[in-house]
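[job 0412] stage=complex_fold ligand=alpha-L-arabinofuranose status=START
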Amino acid sequence: MKKLFLASLVVLVASAISTYLLYLDDSFLETENDFGSKIVLGFAQLGAESEWRSASSASIKDAARRYGIELMFENAQQKQENQIKAIRSFIAHRVDVIAFSPIVETGWDNILLEAKAEGIPVVLVDRHIRTESDGLFAAFVGSDFVEEGRKAGRWLRKKFADAEGEVRVVELRGTEGSSPMRGRYEGFREALGDNDWDNDPKSSAQFKVLCSLRGDFMRSKGRETMEQILSSYSNIDVLFAHNDDMAMGAVEAMEERGIRPGKDVVVISVDAQRSAVEAMKQGKINCIVECNPYVGDRLMELVRKLVAGVSVPSRIYSEEKVYTEDDAPEDLPVHPY
Ligand code: AHR
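[job 0412] stage=complex_fold status=DONE, emitting structure tokens
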């Protein structure tokens, strides 16, 4: 009886301590702004070009609801001027924090200087920017696009480790001037040209990028551009698509011509959306470099810290994997998008 009493007491004390610790852990984070009302976040999404983008928007909306943050959400329909307009309206509303996924890298200095002048912190989500002045944003949360391109290039080198002669590559690029387009383009080439590669120093494959054309991260454009490529080039060995939507469009274009994607043409893509993972299981895509759209929670944590005046890391990168044709189907991700 005494033992039972002692055991119950230990359980009771332990749960009281853990509840207190949980409270402590969150206690420094603000749930309200200086005026005692709900924190307001203005978010300017760049558009809805891909399934990845829809998942990103859903992640932000869902996290805002769970964190009790009031969200003003604008969809800029692929236009930088709309994103700038949205940010200006957030400034006029005097939101507590502004966040946005910049459609392109440049052209943000003026509007960010306006936000800075009003003392509103800015968080970049998913994509990077390049500005003339420093200190125009408080934090970045998203992916390392150059590394994603390198991962694609490294996998390709491994795949062709025993090959000899020319390997003919075509590339479907994302939105011109955007950071994922530039990062993946550069990282891919860097990895292909890396002579310190230790996987197979004997390989004599020569990678030749026949063409690199834009598909704007959209399935319809990926398909259209791949049709043009197939009309202009024969003997294509590899397609590197900067995202899954374009890869899926290209898969359709190839199949229409009787070309077997994944077999006649090696297909590398980025994102890991559900349809592309399914295509990989069917042998139509050989490698997918993961890009993670689920940054909503991390964004809300940053927002709370910024409102509380707590210092935040300037860059937070998502951890991302590479999935390949060699993975067992049960090891492939089942993302809800
Ligand atoms: O910025 C991230 C990229 O944008 C994703 O890879 C792509 O699918 C999206 O449209």
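The first strand starts at residue 40 and ends at 45.
[job 0412] exit 0
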